[in-house]
Amino acid sequence: MDGDLYEKSGVEIIRELGQRYAVYHKRLGITQQEVAKRSGLSVFTISSFENGSSTGITLTSLIKLLRSIGFLEEINKLLPELPESPRSLFKKQNR
After folding, report:
1. For all residues of the chain together, what is the average pLDDT?
2. What is the pLDDT of residue 9?
3. Which CATH class is domain 5-74?
4. Pair 14, 57: CB distance under 8 Å
5. So where are the chain's domains?
6. Contact partners, residue 28, CB within 8 Å, separation at least 6
7. What burial class does residue 68 get, using C-beta atoms within 10 Å of its C-beta: 0-12 exposed, 13-18 middle, 19+ buried?
8. Radius of gyration of the chain (CA)
9. pTM here?
């Protein structure tokens, strides 16, 4: 995504994600019809997400879309597990 994410609205970010998703499945040689079949979502939903006309995609739908192209593990990058806090480590050491 171009530019500073914090300056973009949620709608702008979702539109860019939709455009990027289209590039991904096309490069993988997967059609919208195949994505629909794999994800259980309609071609209309997929097309609307990709062309930016629908910016209210649910997290459940995004998970289905990522799964359909074999990129579900990327969801971990949204909120990676945090390392244990220094305070918690200190308390464990002093038990």
Report:
1. 92
2. 92
3. mainly alpha
4. yes
5. 5-74
6. 69, 70
7. buried
8. 18
9. 0.82
